[in-house]
C-alpha cells in the first residue's frame, strides 16, 4: 500500500511538472528584435515567417516585434522593454554586433535566453545562432562574378570594386571574408573597397559614384554585399552613363533585385528565403520553452548554431530558383517594363 501510494504521489508530481512546463510555454512572451529598415526583408519576410511558425508551434505564445531602425541605443532600450514585459526568449538580430555582447549579458542576468539571428554576436556566446552561411554567401557571389568575367573573356588583371556591408555588423564581416577569399584567389584585382555604414544604399551609391569618376572604364565588375548596396552601385553607374553596365552582384533576392536581374542591370543575387531561418528560430525558441536543449548543427563564436546553404541566382536560373520553387509569382515580379524580360526568360508566356 505504501509503495502504491508512493508511485501515485510520484505520478502526480511528474504530471504536475509537465503541466507547469506546458503552462509556462502557453503563457510565454517571446520577443523578435530586428536591426534596421534599410532592407524591406524584416517586415516583409522575417517577422511574418517567424510569427507564422510560432502560431503553429506555440499558438498561445505572445510575440513582441520591434525594429531598432539602425540605432544601437534604441535596441538596448527595446531589450530592457521586452524583458520588463516578461519575455523569456529574445530572438535578436543586432544593430551592432560588438555592442550586442552587453545585450546578451543583460538578458542572461534576468534568466532570459538570446537566440542570435542572421548576424552573430562574436564577443559573448548567445544561447543559439541561426542564419544562412554568411561567409559562404560572400564567396558564392564573388566567385560567380569571377567565373562570369572569365567566361566573357575579361583579361587577367582587370579591376573590380568591392562594396561591403556595415562595419558594425559581424555578418557583414563574414560576407566580406568570403568575398576576399574568392577575389584574392582570382585573376582580377580589387581597385577599391568600402564598408557601407548601416548598409545604406545611398552611401553605397555616393561611394560608387566617386570610384566611377576615379577609375572609369577600368571597372569591369562590382561585388556588392547585398541588394541594397548593389542598387546604389547600379544607380551610380546609370547616372554616370555607363553602357553597358559592368556586372554587379547582390544578396537577399529582394523584389527590386530580381527585377534588375531580369532587365540585365544586376548580375546575381542570393536566394535565401528569410522564412527558412525564421522557422528555425521559432523551432529553437519552442525547444527552449519546453526546457530542452536544441541540437547544434555546428558551432560559431562558441555558440551552438545552424547555418543554411543559399543559392546563387542569375538570369540563367532565376525561373527555376525563384518562380518554379514558388518563392515569388510572376504577378509580383513581372510588372510594367519587366514583363518583356520575363517573357524572354520563359517566366511569362
TrEMBL record:
Pfam families: Peripla_BP_4 (PF13407). It is found in: Periplasm. Keywords: Signal. The lineage of its organism: Bacteria, Pseudomonadati, Pseudomonadota, Alphaproteobacteria, Rhodobacterales. The keyword Signal applies. InterPro entries: Bact_Solute-Bind_Prot2, Peripla_BP_I, SBP_2_dom. It comes from Paracoccus methylarcula. Belongs to the bacterial solute-binding protein 2 family. GO terms for cellular component: outer membrane-bounded periplasmic space. One of its GO terms (molecular function) is carbohydrate binding. Residues 30-292 form the Periplasmic binding protein domain. Residues 1-24 form the signal peptide. Its main location: periplasm. This is ABC transporter substrate-binding protein.
Amino acid at each position: 500500500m505504501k509503495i502504491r501510494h508512493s508511485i501515485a504521489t510520484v505520478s502526480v508530481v511528474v504530471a504536475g511538472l509537465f503541466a507547469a512546463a506546458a503552462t509556462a510555454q502557453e503563457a510565454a512572451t517571446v520577443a523578435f528584435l530586428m536591426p534596421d529598415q534599410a532592407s524591406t526583408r524584416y517586415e516583409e519576410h522575417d517577422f511574418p515567417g517567424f510569427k507564422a511558425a510560432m502560431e503553429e508551434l506555440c499558438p498561445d505564445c505572445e510575440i513582441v516585434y520591434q525594429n531598432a531602425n539602425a540605432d544601437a541605443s534604441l535596441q538596448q532600450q527595446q531589450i530592457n522593454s521586452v524583458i520588463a514585459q516578461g519575455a523569456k526568449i529574445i530572438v535578436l538580430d543586432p544593430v551592432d554586433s560588438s555592442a550586442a555582447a552587453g545585450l546578451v549579458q543583460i538578458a542572461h542576468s534576468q534568466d532570459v535566453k538570446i537566440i542570435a539571428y542572421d548576424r552573430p554576436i562574436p564577443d559573448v556566446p548567445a544561447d543559439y545562432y541561426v542564419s544562412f552561411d554568411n561567409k559562404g554567401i560572400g564567396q558564392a557571389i564573388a566567385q560567380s562574378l569571377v567565373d562570369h568575367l572569365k567566361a566573357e573573356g575579361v583579361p587577367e588583371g582587370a579591376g573590380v570594386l568591392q562594396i561591403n556591408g556595415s562595419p558594425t555588423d559581424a555578418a557583414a564581416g563574414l560576407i566580406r571574408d568570403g568575398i576576399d577569399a574568392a577575389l584574392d584567389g582570382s585573376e582580377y584585382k580589387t581597385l577599391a573597397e568600402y564598408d557601407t555604414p548601416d548598409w545604406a544604399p545611398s552611401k553605397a551609391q555616393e561611394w560608387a559614384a566617386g570610384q566611377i569618376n576615379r577609375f572609369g572604364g577600368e571597372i569591369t565588375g562590382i561585388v556588392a554585399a547585398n541588394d541594397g548596396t548593389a542598387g546604389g552601385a547600379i544607380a551610380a553607374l546609370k547616372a554616370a552613363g555607363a553602357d553597358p553596365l559592368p556586372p554587379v552582384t547582390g544578396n537577399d533576392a529582394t523584389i527590386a533585385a530580381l527585377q534588375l536581374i531580369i532587365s540585365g542591370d544586376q548580375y546575381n543575387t542570393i536566394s535565401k528565403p528569410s522564412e527558412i531561418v525564421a522557422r528555425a528560430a521559432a523551432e529553437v525558441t519552442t525547444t527552449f520553452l519546453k526546457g530542452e536543449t536544441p541540437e547544434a548543427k555546428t558551432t560559431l563564436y562558441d555558440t551552438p548554431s545552424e547555418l543554411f546553404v543559399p543559392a546563387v541566382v542569375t538570369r540563367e536560373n532565376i525561373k527555376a530558383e525563384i518562380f518554379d520553387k514558388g518563392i515569388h509569382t510572376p504577378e509580383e515580379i513581372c510588372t510594367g517594363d519587366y514583363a518583356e524580360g520575363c517573357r524572354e526568360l520563359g517566366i511569362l508566356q
